[in-house]
Amino acid sequence: xxxxxxxxxxxxxxxxxxxxxxxxxxxxxxxxxxxxxxxxxxxxxxxxxxxxxxxxxxxxxxxxxxxxxxxxxxxxxxxxxxxxxxxxxxxxxxxxxxxxxxxxxxxxxxxxxxxxxxxxxxxxxxxxxxxxxxxxxxxxxxxxxxxxxxxxxxxxxxxxxxxxxxxxxxxxxxxxxxxxxxxxxxxxxxxxxxxxxxxxxxxxxxxxxxxxxxxxxxxxxxxxxxxxxxxxxxxxxxxxxxxxxxxxxxxxxxxxxxxxxxxxxxxxxxxxxxxxxxxxxxxxxxxxxxxxxxxxxxxxxxxxxxxxxxxxxxxxxxxxxxxxxxxxxxxxxxxxxxxxxxxxxxxxxxxxxxxxxxxxxxxxxxxxxxxxxxxxxxxxxxxxxxxxxxxxxxxxxxxxxxxxxxxxxxxxxxxxxxxxx
Length: 421
Known about the structure:
Blueprint: E1 5-9, H1 15-22, E2 27-31, H2 35-42, H3 53-61, E3 65-67, E4 78-81, H4 96-108, E5 114-117, H5 125-138, E6 147-150, E7 169-171, H6 176-187, E8 194-196, H7 200-231, H8 235-242, H9 264-274, H10 280-290, H11 292-306, E9 315-319, H12 335-343, E10 348-352, H13 358-365, E11 378-383, E12 399-407, E13 419-420
Parallel strand pairs: 1-2, 1-4, 2-3, 4-5, 5-6, 7-8, 9-10, 9-11, 11-12, 12-13
Helix pairs in contact: 4-5, 7-9, 7-10, 11-12
């Protein structure tokens, strides 16, 4: 494909790092409907912190551009869709962002152009749901006038080691020739290499099982944590012992939130159900992991009662609200389940997270974040997210003489905690 001009649609945790990477080799324009997001990026700052200011500003100087104007991407010929694919309150896949992005592509795509989807979906979505929209809006015929591919994102928010170019990329195309072209373009910037899948559906399926596998494995150790807790055995000590075997998988119990592991299994489950199969293990894993926030909260209440701490109107500090450590992403955070369950007991809860955006937290969860670490004494402190910054805090200076310290992440010294998963 000569004179490749790339447009990346959706400039979030996935789209921006990819667009920045493509810009090192090709003329690249990032498109996002959020004008405030675009303005901030054009000023050289990424609020998600996935792309450093230095890298972003360097890319902008070298011709990379972000825009909210659809006309700016009309002259592109290689479109990449990287928009969120969430679930609704009933855990059903919400493809609305994908439909809207496909409409955008349909308005600007031309003959001979290629559109590649990166958003996590179940097998069949690209060809059965998205492409018909592009065809209808553009008036072009699929696999005659324009072509498509699927290359699932593998971004790990907050991970500065496994960045986009260092993670092997799965690619696919709607024809054998187009698959090779797509693979060639990705391979030119992905230093870790690529894997060309034989079809779009295979690539879609590969993505959705990656996170489903992790979800099931975490669900298993979460169940172990519940069992060993009843037996009075420390789960972390059990896992440390078991990990001495060469093929034992080192998963740890915890909260499973975020936009991938806590969501993707529902896409696979719905797809399976549409074919008349009820995926028992996948859904059982989801039920286990979705209930861990409430379980943690109840364990904390039990510890407080055992130590004779008055639960009603007690002072509780939650350290961390993001869905994982050392990143500002609060999407689908399961710490909120701990918060909501504890609120049912009428506790006074303070939430402190130096990584989270207070405005987003207020809008999404109606929680007012504490901007600085409080100086008052608490009855209970909960380490919910293992931010590195929390290792600098002397937790005993924040607690009353009779207190509970609960470690959700097995992050704190064992001698100061009263309980952990």
